[in-house]
Structures are given as structure tokens and as C-alpha cells.
UniProtKB/TrEMBL annotation:
Gene name of the record: proC
Organism: Paenibacillus uliginis N3/975
TM region(s), chain numbering: none
Record's keyword terms, sorted: Amino-acid biosynthesis, Cytoplasm, NADP, Oxidoreductase, Proline biosynthesis
Pathway it works in: Amino-acid biosynthesis; L-proline biosynthesis; L-proline from L-glutamate 5-semialdehyde: step 1/1
Ranges of residues in domain Pyrroline-5-carboxylate reductase dimerisation: 176-280
One GO term describing the cellular component: cytoplasm
Reactions that this protein is recorded to catalyse: L-proline + NADP(+) = (S)-1-pyrroline-5-carboxylate + NADPH + 2 H(+); L-proline + NAD(+) = (S)-1-pyrroline-5-carboxylate + NADH + 2 H(+)
Name of the protein described by the UniProt record: Pyrroline-5-carboxylate reductase
Residue ranges constituting the Pyrroline-5-carboxylate reductase catalytic N-terminal domain according to the UniProt record: 15-113
GO MF annotations in UniProt: pyrroline-5-carboxylate reductase activity
Length: 289
């Protein structure tokens, strides 16, 4: 039976996820839950973990395989391959992948630190590549994804990639040299907020609140603050100033954060994340032969 236009998925091409870790699952969950793709058009592959693949198939209805010959045939024929393996496995996988690819197959990389040039060098060919850095909030349609495109990508393919990631959140197209700092801000950024929430929740519990009370207060505070910035359009510093009365409790708290060099520590953490992304990329570049 033909689907009516309004019921058709946004993306009708088959997509293969080469790697089945947390980032791949986050994207698949977002695509499936928002009806962006039919589950049967998504295939997930990994090296050897059959239990993991079975779990993903049961959860999302996607196709799976870790059979070597079957994987080879899937990779040969898939119009879009999402590179989602662990960085330590990427060089070997790409060297094996290059010889079986046709020129029109699109590769979408979500591997931190892996540049377009290094990817093409490991493949041994100038394949169309979109280098991306999503985050795990894509799983609930609230992701933030940075994207850079290789010069081999045409306008139609570019739009396909944009549609893929716009379906699970916001997209920022950037020059590739900015991808590492983007990784430090949005790629790893959710972890910083989770860590802050851990600390705030712990403070509430130590102060006598129940764990549930402290968690809910922290959660709503974080959500409300982010929404205030979004809705008002005001700079965070302006909103902070509005709730910081001279000699008040908020000022006392902020002074304690300043004693710990909070502002510069956060900047240092973001920069260290970007630096680590570059280091990982250098390791992969060193495996070109």
C-alpha cells in the first residue's frame, strides 16, 4: 500500500550505522521516535556484540548484523553509511571499507577528532563525507549537531544530511577547523550540565531535602534557566545580574564559585575537550599508510 505524502517519512533512503554505541543509538532513537525514517530502512552493524544488536533490534525494530559476509554486502550497497565506531577501531575499519565503496556512497562521520582529509586518506579515495558532531540529546529530538562537508558533496546530498540531523535537533554548519571547539561546547556539553546537576542535587540532600525533592528542584531550575535565555533573548550575564542582589544569598553563592575560579575552569574544560579531540585526530592521522 502506498503511503500518503503526509505519512511518508522525511528520509526514504536506507541508512547503515557502522557501529552501535551510545551516539549511534541516540540518533536512531531520535529518528525512530519522531517517525523520520522507517525502522526497516535503518541497519546497525558492530564487530561482534550480538547481544547489543539484539537489544537494539528489539527496542527500535531496526535491521542488525554482525556476520562478516553479510556486513560486507550491506556496506557495499548502502547509499548512506554513518561511521559510528570507536575511534580506536576507525583506522582499520576505514582501510577495509575504502575498496568496496562506490563513488556515490555518502559517509557521515560522528567520530570525534576524525577529519575529512584523514578519513579520505584512510579510505584511499575522495569519498563524499559529512563530518558531524552530534550530542546524545538527539535521542529526544533536542540535539545540537555541528556539520562540515567535503567538497565532493553536492547540494542534494548536503540537504539529505541536514534533514537527517535537523530531525533530531538543531544544526550548525561550520568550517571544519572549528569542529574541535564545537566538540568542547556542544558535543561533550551535556556532561558538564549533568555534573553540575549532580553537585546541586547532592547539596540539597546534604541540606535535608529528599533525593527526589532535590532532583526535581535542580532539574526544573536548569530547564527554566535555559528557557529564560531562549525566550528573553537576553545575555546570561544580564539575567544573572537581575537575580543577584548586593550582599544577598545569590551573590554569596557566586562569590564562592569565583573563589574556585569557576568561569575560567569551565573555559579550561571546554578547551581541554577540544584539545583532546585534536589529539585523537592526530592518532588516527598517524595510522595512514
Amino acid at each position: 500500500m502506498c503511503q500518503s505524502p503526509q505519512n511518508r517519512p522525511l528520509i526514504e533512503k536506507a541508512i547503515t550505522f557502522y557501529g552501535a554505541g551510545s551516539m549511534a543509538e541516540a540518533i536512531v532513537r531520535g529518528l525512530a521516535s519522531r517517525s523520520v525514517m522507517r525502522p526497516e530502512d535503518i541497519t546497525m552493524l558492530n564487530r561482534s556484540n550480538s547481544l547489543r544488536l539484539q537489544e537494539l533490534q528489539d527496542r527500535y525494530g531496526v535491521k542488525v548484523s554482525n556476520d562478516a559476509q553479510e556486513k560486507l554486502e550491506i556496506l557495499k550497497s548502502s547509499p548512506v553509511i554513518v561511521l559510528a565506531m570507536k575511534p580506536k577501531d576507525a583506522a582499520k575499519a576505514l582501510k577495509e571499507l575504502g575498496p568496496i565503496l562506490s563513488d556515490d556512497q555518502l559517509l557521515v562521520s560522528v567520530i570525534a577528532g576524525l577529519s575529512i582529509q584523514t578519513t579520505q586518506n584512510l579510505l584511499g579515495k575522495k569519498q563524499p563525507i559529512a563530518r558531524t558532531m552530534p550530542n546524545t540529546s538527539s535521542s529526544i529530538g533536542m540535539g545540537s549537531t555541528g556539520i562540515s562537508f567535503s567538497k565532493e558533496i553536492d547540494d542534494h546530498t548536503r540537504q539529505l544530511v541536514l534533514t537527517l540531523f535537523e530531525a533530531v535537533g538543531d544544526v550548525t554548519v561550520i568550517e571544519e577547523e572549528k569542529m574541535d571547539i564545537l566538540t568542547g561546547i556542544s558535543g561533550s556539553g551535556p556532561a558538564y550540565f549533568y555534573y553540575l546537576m549532580e553537585a546541586m542535587t547532592a547539596a540539597g540532600i546534604r541540606g535535608g531535602l529528599t533525593a527526589d525533592q532535590s532532583r526535581e528542584l535542580t532539574l526544573q531550575t536548569i530547564m527554566g534557566a535555559a528557557r529564560m535565555v531562549q525566550v528573553t533573548g537576553e545575555h546570561p550575564s544580564a539575567l544573572r545580574a537581575k537575580i543577584t542582589s548586593p550582599n544577598g544569598s545569590t551573590q554569596a553563592a557566586l562569590e564562592r564559585l569565583d573563589q574556585g575560579d569557576f568561569f575560567e575552569t569551565v573555559i579550561s574544560a571546554v578547551n581541554r575537550c577540544a584539545e583532546r579531540s585534536r589529539e585523537m585526530g592526530a592518532v588516527l592521522k598517524g595510522q595512514i599508510s
